[in-house]
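User: Can you help me understand a structure? I only have the sequence.
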Amino acid sequence: MPSGRRLLVIACGALAHEITALKAANGWEHVDVRCLPAELHNHPDRIPAAVRKLIAESRDSGYDALFVAYADCGTGGRLDAVLREEGVERIPGAHCYEFFATPTVFAALAEAEPGTFYLTDFLLRHFERLVIRGLGLDRHPELFGAYFGNYRKLVYLAQAPARADGISENAARAIAARMGLAFEYRPTGYGALATSLESAAVRVSDVKRRRGVAEVDAWRS
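Assistant: Let's start by predicting it. Here is the structure, written out as tokens:
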């Protein structure tokens, strides 16, 4: 069981790599993470119940605060309904593309080309498993047109800093070529994922600090 003031982040598995990096970079030793399978995105109607279940399981685990690292993610507001009932906050936004890019930038991208396929670092790493094999395109490549015929462009929203060898950008560019799409590279960093987690982490640590000061003052008096 956690000791002291601690925060539990209930996260989409697609964000595990990024949240781990943010924890390490910021020294958030009081923050723990539990991830739900990224494959839930194939069934967004299951996300609210899965999040509610994990919230309920975590209530008795000694955490002082919970935070949900999901956007709406196709739940049509049902995740927000669950979180209102549970009194838990989440990352603002409709999906990870929006909170990585920021709403203003994403809206501009979507307006400029509605037929855009978006890649994140997670989707880039798992493109073969989630898209090619997940949609059966390894067995039926003739379905590429049915799935992606209305797309015109691929935008790679990159969270990690660009590598000197350009390996990630080149891999994303190769996927765009494979899909017959124009390509755009957009380095975003962690966007609202970073700011939302920082806000939640600081609130918990600040409560811990202020309570510690109060306890010392009480002892002195």
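Now, to help you interpret it: Residues 29 and 127 are 32 Å apart (CA to CA). The beta strands are 7-12, 31-36, 65-69, 89-90, 116-119, 153-158, 182-187. Let me know which part you'd like to focus on.
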